[in-house]
Specification:
- By secondary structure, the chain is mostly helical.
- The protein is built from 16 helices and no strands.
Amino acid sequence: MESNRVIGGMLLIAGSCIGAGMLALPILTGLAGFFPSLTMLFLSWAFMTFTALLLVEVNGWFKSQVNLITMAQESLGKKGRLAAWLSYLFLFYSLLVAYTAASGTIFSAIIESLFNLSVPPSLASTFFTILFGYIVYLGTRPVDLFNRVLMVGLILSYLGMIALGLARIDSALLLHSAPQYTLLSLPVLVVSFGFQNMIPSLTNYLHNDLKKVRRTIIGGSLITLAIYLIWSLLVLGVVSPENIETSYAKGEEATIPLRAALGSNAISHFAQGFAFFAIITSFLAQGLTLTHFLADGFKKHPTRKNLIFFTSLALLPPLFLALYNPQIFFRALSFAGGICAMILFGILPVSMVWVGRYIRRHASPYHVKGGKPILVFAFLFSLLVIGCEIARFF
C-alpha cells in the first residue's frame, strides 16, 4: 500500500537524522539553556525542511532519478557540480572525524565496565575503526543487516533512558539561560536535520508522487524534531549547567554527564548503550556512503580489491585526525554543519531553484510557496550559519 510507503519514508528520514549527532546536541544547546535553544531547534528544523522541499521541486525537473551532484550540474553548471562534490566530500569526512573521536571515550568506558580493563581512548578508537571498518569493507548488505540489529538496540536504549529519566527532571535546571551562546548550537542542529541526500531515492520510492514526497519529508522531520526535543529536555533537566560547560570543554558527548548526574545503574547502562549504538550506526552509514562516493568519484567499480583502497581512504584520515586531537568531536560536527551542510543543503538548493524558476523557467509538478522573499531569507540564513562557524576560528 502507498500509505505504508509514506510511513516507511518518514521512518527512513528519521533514521537517517537520528544518530551520533544527538550525542552533541544537549551539550551545545545546554550552554545557552533549554528555552533559548528551543528557538534555534525549531528554526533549524524549519530551514532544513524547507530546503528539502526545494530539492523536491528541483527533482521534478528531471524525468529519471538523479543525485544531488547531477542536480547541481544541470542547474548551475560545472561550478555547481564542483561545489556540491567538494561539500559532499568534506561533509562525510568531517562527520567521520567526529564519530571516530567520540568512539574512543565511549568504547574505552564500555570495555572498562564489561571487563574491568582500562584501555586508552586512542587505542579504543583504533580498534573501533578497524572492527567496523571491516564491516564497511564487506559492503552494503552486511552493513544493512548489522545496522538493523543496532537500530533495535538504539531505539530500546533511548526509550529506556526516557522512561527512567523523565521522572528525575529538575524544572529549575531548565530555567538556566545564557543567550550569548544561542548561536553556538546552530551548525550542529542544522546537520542533525540533514537528510536531503535521500530526496532522489525517496522520490523514486514513492513513484514520483511529489505530494507524497512532501508529506513524507514533513512527517519524518517532525518525528526527528520530537525525538530531539524530548532528548534535550531529559539531559538539560538532569545535568547542571556547570557540568554541561565541563563536558563541552572536554569534548564529551551527552551521555557521560547524564550518567554521572543520575547515578543509577539501570539508566547508566541505557545511556551507555545508546551512545554505543548511535556512534556505530552513524559510523557505518557515513563510512559506507563515503567509500562508495570515493569509488564513484574515481570512476572505479567497487570490487573487493578496490574496496580495500577506498575503505582505507575513507576511514584512515578521520582516525589520524581523531588521534591527533581527541577533543575534536564538537569542532568536527560544527564544521560539518556550519560549512559543508550549509553549502550543500542550504546555498545550493536555493541557488538551483532560483536559476531554474526565474532564469531557465523550468516547470515542476511541485512548487514550494513563498517566492523570491523566502528564497532570499533562506540564502541569508545559510550565510549566517557559515559566518557563525567561521567566527569560531578567530
